[in-house]
Design a protein that fits this description.
mainly alpha; 2 domains; 6 helices; 0% strand
Length: 153
């Protein structure tokens, strides 16, 4: 179980850095399409090299897997472009929090589609996600009201 936590921590740190770099790119007025194209080129290059030269595995996949990978790639590209464009209009804290809270959707799908067991931790996590989204919405409404009445944020 020790390695699982190490990988979890590495993923958490890298996803956090990704969010920070997206905001930095926005502040520097970089084109989001160019940033994301380079992100995916480097991701592909590093993953291909790791798979082929470190793990010595083939990168040839069955047709079904290739189609699933194409759909994943399309979803990832749309999601990352939407995020990159969205942070131009909102706060990164809110945008990034919503993206991380979206993990609740696959959890719900796992429960409904794959009949994954529901334990207390999952129920509490889903409940906290719902509360977090509600509080973000409430905070956004309060900020909009402050702007309407001319008060500083």
């Amino acid at each position: 179980m020790g390695f699982a936590y190490i990988y979890l921590f590495i993923g958490l740190v890298c996803i956090s850095i990704l969010g920070i770099l997206h905001k930095l790119a926005d502040v520097k007025k970089c084109r989001s399409s160019a940033i994301n194209a380079l992100l995916f080129v480097w991701s592909f290059s590093l993953l291909f090299s790791y798979t082929r030269f470190v793990r010595h595995e083939t990168v040839i996949a069955p047709l079904t897997v290739s189609w699933i990978a194409i759909l994943f790639g399309i979803c990832a590209a749309v999601a990352i472009l939407a995020f990159q464009e969205g942070i131009k209009y909102g706060q990164i804290a809110t945008s990034w929090l919503i993206i991380n809270l979206s993990a609740g959707l696959p959890t719900l799908a796992s429960i409904v589609v794959y009949h994954e067991a529901v334990n207390v931790k999952k129920v509490v996590a889903l409940f906290l996600i719902a509360i977090s989204i509600f509080l973000i919405w409430k905070d956004k409404k309060a900020a909009e009201l402050m702007v309407e009445v001319g008060a500083p944020e």
